[in-house]
Amino acid sequence: MRSRLGKTVFALGLLLALLLIGPLLLPVPPLTGTVPPEQLADPDSRFIQIDGPTVHYKISGSGHPGIVLLHGFAASTFSWRAVIEPMSNWGTVVAFDRPGFGLTERPTRWTGPNPYGPEAQADLTVRLMDMLGIERAVLVGNSAGGAIALLTTLKYPERVEALVLIAPAVYIDNGAPDWARPLLDTPQMRRLGPLLVRSIRNWGLTLARSAWHDPTKLTPEIEEGYTRPLRAENWDRGLWEVVRASRPLRLERRLAEIQKPVLVVTGDSDRIVPPEHSIRLSREIPDGRLVIIPQCGHVPQEECPEPFLKAVEAFLRDLQLHPPRDPSQ
Predict the structure, then answer these.
(1) Alpha helix locations (H) across the chain?
(2) Which of 63, 170, 227, 303 sits a CA distance of 20 to 30 A from 325?
(3) Domain chopping of the chain, boundaries
C-alpha cells in the first residue's frame, strides 16, 4: 500500500515539475519577417514619443473641436480610413494606435505603470492631446476603444466634451478575471504567452469577417490593412502584454458618473457586441442618445461610413460643436 502511495506521490510530483519547468525549457521560435513599425507606415503616418513608447498616429483638419479616435481590439488607425478625412471638415481629427496594436512601439521593458494597461491607455490619450495642443476633445471609441474612451472620461472629465461610442464593449467582460491574473504573471506564461497569441494569424481574419454584416465587402486590400501590423517587430509580445494587463473595468457600475453628452452607435446585425447592449447603454447613461444603423455590423465606421458620419454630424451640430458650413463653399 505504501509502495503504491509512494509511486502516486512521485508521479504527481513529476507531473507538477513538468508543468512548472517544461514551459521554461520549451524552445520558442523567434518571429520571422518582422520589421520596425516605421517601415510599414503610410505616407500620412506620424510618430511621436510619449513618456517612453513611440506612438503611431494620423492627424487631419484643424481647429475646434478636437476629435480623438480610439480603435478596438486587434485593430488600428486603419479602422478609421473611411471617415477621418470627412470628419476633418468638422475640426482637428486624431487617430492613434493604442499600445499593443498597429504601428505603435511594443516595449518589452518599462519602469512604472504597465503601458499596456487600460489606465495607462487613458493616460496616453490625454498625453497625446497635450502634445498636439488639444485642450478638450470629443472621444470616439469603437468596441474596446469605447471602453477606453469611457475610462478616459471618468479619469479626466475636464478634457472631454462629448463621447461617440460605437458598439462599445461595456457589458462584455473585457479583461482577465481576477482569479486568472496570477497565472498570467507566472514566468511560464510570460514565456509561452507570445507564442500562444501568434495564432491570431489563423483566426484574426475570421474574427474580422464576423464584424461585418456583409463580409463579402472585405477586399484583399482591406484584409492586407488588417494584417499589416502583424509584420511589426514584437507584435506578438505586445498583444500578449495587452492580454496580461487587461482586467474587468466594471464600467457599468459607474455610468451615472458620465456627465457628458453621449452618442451610442450600433449596427443592427452586430455579432460581437449585441445591439441590445448598446441600447441598454444609451438608456443607462444620463445623457445618452442612440442611433441604430440597418444592415450594418460591429464596425459602422468601416462598413457603413455614410450613415455613421451623418449620425455623428447631427450629434455635433446639436451640441453646437460642428460649425455651420460656409454657404460660399
Answers:
(1) 2-25, 84-87, 118-131, 144-155, 181-184, 187-197, 200-210, 220-227, 235-245, 275-284, 300-303, 305-318
(2) 303
(3) 43-318
